């Protein structure tokens, strides 16, 4: 009996809530320590200087500075460049 019965047409109304993933601060923008730079699933972009990875793979700044993105060894990195004090 591989045939389902008729009846309710309301079988499709399920959708997951948005997860708000993506880049939150772009290259050249200033951040403060603790600011989230990227929300991601898996490490698509790796943490560089003054950046750490959270438990959900988000990247956040550990120091005040300016966000810079670069790529080497076929990996993308997010860095925070700290302005030197004068």
From TrEMBL:
It holds the Pfam family Ribosomal_L27. The keyword Ribonucleoprotein applies. Keywords: Ribonucleoprotein, Ribosomal protein. GO terms for cellular component: ribonucleoprotein complex; ribosome. GO terms for biological process: translation. One of its GO terms (molecular function) is structural constituent of ribosome. Residues 1-22 are annotated as: Disordered. Residues 1-10 have a biased composition (Gly residues). Belongs to the bacterial ribosomal protein bL27 family. This is Large ribosomal subunit protein bL27. It comes from Treponema berlinense.
């Amino acid at each position: 009996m591989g045939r389902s019965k008729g009846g309710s047409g309301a079988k499709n109304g399920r959708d997951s809530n948005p997860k708000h993933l993506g880049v939150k601060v772009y290259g050249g923008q200033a951040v403060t320590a603790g600011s989230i730079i990227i929300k991601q699933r898996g490490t698509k972009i790796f943490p560089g200087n003054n950046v750490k990875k959270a438990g959900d793979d988000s990247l956040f700044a550990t120091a005040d500075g300016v966000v810079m993105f670069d790529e080497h060894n076929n990996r993308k990195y997010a860095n925070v460049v700290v302005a030197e004090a004068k």
